[in-house]
Amino acid sequence: MGKRVGMTTPAAPEVFVFDVVGTLADLQPVENRMQARGLPAGSLDPWFRHMLRDAMALTLAGDYLPFTDVAASALHSHTRGALSDDDVEWILGGFSETRPHPDAVPAVDAALKSGARVFALSNGAASSTEGFLDRAGIRDRVEQILSIDDVRAWKPSPAPYRLAVERAGVPASSMAMIAVHGWDLHGASRVGLRTGWCSREEGVLTPAFARPDVVADRLDDVVRGLATPSVTSE
């Protein structure tokens, strides 16, 4: 029988990179505004998927529009033109009211407690992320606020993750991307970041994507799973 040798998983990440829209930020205010303008309950998710489809199509074609433009276009298209420009602008104003999910601030705190630095990387504008972090009371805990506007390409294209690596000044393997979206983590993994997936939104992993390094039901448990090396044997 071969000798069993203890093996330690990689050291805790030096930098945790958090997705913002849907991961840290609860989009319920946007859903509330949709319903206030006559859209049925549950309209947020299909519209959000529509927006992501359009954004990814633009990126694949080599084009770029910022978050607000694609969001407004998708809302007009998704509702088949039933909303006025003023309605769309008012609904999207709900992003300025978003608050953190219950596990969001504990997740950021868990990352800091591990000794890591914290970045935010969003498909939204940096100003929108900054406003959210201020409302959440954690702006001072986030070292870098990064936006796809900086590279003019939507996640999960490689450019936003490479920007995070460049700004961090450490190897990609020393960083971890945290998100509730499997497609986001797949993009990060292709650039070499470790990944942690919270099942809060999607419920199940998409088999087509690279499996995240850590999976948990709560965001803070995802962070702790990555930050705590474990010993396995072979």
Blueprint of the fold:
Blueprint: E1 6-8, E2 15-18, E3 25-26, H1 28-36, H2 44-60, H3 67-78, H4 85-92, E4 99-100, H5 104-113, E5 117-122, H6 126-136, E6 144-147, H7 158-168, E7 175-179, H8 182-191, E8 194-198, E9 214-216, H9 219-227, E10 231-233
Parallel strand pairs: 2-5, 2-7, 5-6, 7-8, 8-9
Antiparallel strand pairs: 1-10, 3-4
Helix pairs in contact: 2-3, 3-4, 5-9
Task: Name the descriptors.
single chain; 234 residues; alpha/beta; Rossmann fold; DNA polymerase, domain 1; 2 domains; six-stranded parallel beta sheet; two-stranded antiparallel sheet; 9 helices; 10 strands; 41% helix
The largest sheet is: 6 strands, parallel
The CATH class of the largest domain is identified as: Alpha Beta
Order of helices and strands: EEEHHHHEHEHEHEHEEHE
How far the N terminus sits from the C terminus, by CA atoms, comes to 12 Å
Overall, the morphology is globular
Low-pLDDT regions: 1-7
User: Which structural class fits the helix and strand makeup?
Assistant: alpha/beta
Under CATH, the homologous superfamily of the largest domain reads HAD superfamily/HAD-like
**Radius of gyration, rounded?**
18 Å
Helix content: 40-55%
Q: CATH topology of the largest domain, anyone?
A: Rossmann fold
| Mean pLDDT score | 94
Q: Strand order across the biggest sheet?
A: 6-5-2-7-8-9
Number of domains: 2
Report the count of strand segments. 10
